[in-house]
From TrEMBL:
Top-level taxon: Bacteria
InterPro entries: DUF6551, ParB/Sulfiredoxin_sf
Protein's name in the database: ParB-like nuclease domain-containing protein
Gene3D superfamilies: Conserved hypothetical protein from pyrococcus furiosus pfu- 392566-001, ParB domain (3.90.1530.10)
């Protein structure tokens, strides 16, 4: 075992602290995100709140070290006057900032895949919507990041955005085209490709023919298609999604005199 730190310091205390006795030091705290505060406030529940980390000040007040968004939501809630807290005695501002950095730097971020599976178990509406569109196209989410197989995806955020911007139908059709074009490709269901196709399908709902798009894409490798899109991006700029949409439209329209399609507007 590697050497461990034995100078662990004094144990913190567990206390209920009045929300009005808590302050935030902007010298090291991140700017408050009002949208996140509102989200916590709307869904406020003690079972999901946890404990904030505070630094005790000499005047009976406390400084937030970790959890300022939860504290702010609690402060705004009409039925909350105190929050559960882990209270640490810091020597000075520098030590507070060091604690803030260590807590946030060493924390393992929850991936979008982990959030999805937890959300599905919890009955989260967004996770259920993503699951429904994937299942309807014979697809699913990878069990965990790195476990790539055909017809599985880790592009949760992109699919959620597609559903919001282009709808269930366009997103499902995009997934079906990708499945049919690259049935054996483990990483075919990538977010940019799903989004670009859904955008095109939404803009050309009555014109685009899925068999024609599938046939046009099948000879293309993912790498070749990505390189094609990157060439567009270098020439005209724009997002990766727009460049890929242009590449897809060019491939689809090649040799056609009628029933051509356009990229449509990003949403």
């Amino acid at each position: 075992m590697s050497e461990i730190n034995r100078a662990i310091g004094a144990r913190p205390t567990l206390e209920w602290v009045a929300v009005e006795a808590i302050d935030v030091d902007q010298n090291y705290q991140r700017p408050l995100k009002n949208a996140l505060v509102e989200k916590i406030l709307r869904r406020f529940s003690w079972s999901k709140f946890g404990a904030v980390v505070l630094s005790r000040k000499g005047d009976g007040r406390f400084m937030v070290v970790e959890g300022q968004h939860r504290w702010k939501a609690a402060q705004l809630h009409p039925d909350v006057t105190e929050v559960p807290a882990i209270v640490v005695d810091h020597v000075d501002l520098k030590e507070e900032a060091e604690s803030f950095l260590a807590i946030n730097r060493d924390r393992m971020a929850v991936t979008s895949v982990e959030q999805y599976w937890a959300g599905l178990t919890a009955g989260d509406d967004d996770a259920i919507a993503v699951s429904k569109v994937l299942q309807s196209a014979g697809c699913d989410v990878v069990p965990e990041n790195g476990h790539y197989r055909p017809n599985l995806t880790n592009s949760i955020t992109a699919i959620r955005r597609c559903l919001q911007n282009y709808g269930h139908g366009a997103t499902r059709r995009a997934l079906l085209i990708i499945r049919a074009a690259w049935p054996d490709e483990p990483k075919a269901l990538r977010g940019t490709l799903i989004t670009a196709l859904a955008r095109i399908i939404r803009a050309n709902d009555k014109t685009i023919a899925e068999p024609d798009m599938t046939a046009a894409l099948r000879p293309q490798s993912i790498a070749k298609l990505t390189a094609h899109a990157e060439a567009f991006r270098k020439l005209s700029g724009g997002s990766a999604e727009t460049a890929l949409a242009k590449a897809l439209v060019e491939i689809y329209n090649k040799g056609k005199r009628t029933n051509t399609i356009m990229i449509g507007e990003a949403r």
